[in-house]
Write a structure and sequence with these properties.
alpha+beta, Archaeosine Trna-guanine Transglycosylase, Chain: A, domain 4, Methane Monooxygenase Hydroxylase, Chain G, domain 1, five-stranded mixed barrel, 7 strands
């Protein structure tokens, strides 16, 4: 696998970015695995690899991921930095990318097989780890409790030590792990303040824990040996 690298700055400025509409929300610092098989996205990814540039992941608002007309995206997305490429037959490829910077689409351009956008990178305020340590400490036990309940429901295990210590990283991982519709995760991606983001995710986990508890209270305990759940 080839390793490629370039990181966008966090300064707010306009740039043109290839866009990949998906039925998922990418968050900063979180991994994304993709199997590229459509010709238009083969072209897009080869260009990104050749020029060492990122692409943008945006949640589909209407339309479909594969084939057909280009989907209509939500306006806020996350840049994806390609870290690994595995070439396959017929030009297909598997890629691994890492989310980096949030952005807002100002306008889209459809003069290529894939969508491109003129985007502006978004700043996150109140990101100091020391200031976020208290709200982060309040969020952590809710994530741990939620994952423990999922383990009970699904015969899986997880290691709480794998949860990141940095508050924003914990919050974004929490946003990935919670089992809610993508549109709710899109709302979290749009939050521009560290305090508000952590508080919103904690409120979401409190609600989901209550719902999961209600479901589990109606189910018999399982006695099978649980499998292994990884936060990687």
């Amino acid at each position: 696998m080839a390793i490629i690298g370039q990181r966008l700055t966090s300064e707010p400025f306009m740039l043109e970015l290839p866009l990949f509409p998906l039925n998922t929300v990418l968050f900063p610092g979180m991994p994304l695995n993709l199997h590229i098989f459509e010709d238009r996205y083969k072209t897009m990814m080869n260009l990104c690899v050749e020029k060492h540039q990122p692409f943008g992941v945006v949640l589909i608002k209407s339309g479909t991921e594969a084939f057909g007309p280009l989907a209509e995206p939500h306006m806020i997305g996350c840049t994806a930095h390609i870290t690994q490429v595995q070439p396959l037959s017929q030009g297909r490829m598997n890629i691994v990318a890492i989310g980096q910077e949030r952005f807002e689409i100002i306008s889209t351009v459809n003069d290529r097989p894939y969508m491109t956008g003129n985007v502006q990178l978004l700043r996150m305020t109140n990101t100091d780890t020391r200031l976020l340590s208290t709200p982060g400490a309040k969020l952590r036990p809710w994530i741990e409790r939620y994952l423990s309940m999922l383990a009970r429901a699904g015969d899986i295990q997880f290691d709480a030590k794998q949860l990141p210590k940095e508050p924003l990283a914990l919050a974004y991982l929490g946003a990935v792990l919670v089992q809610v519709p993508p549109v709710q995760k899109q709302e979290l991606l749009a939050v521009n303040d560290g305090f508000s983001l952590i508080d919103s995710i904690r409120a979401l986990y409190r609600r989901e824990v209550a719902l999961l508890q209600a479901v589990l209270s109606k189910e018999p305990d399982e006695t099978d040996t649980p499998g292994q759940f990884s936060l990687n």
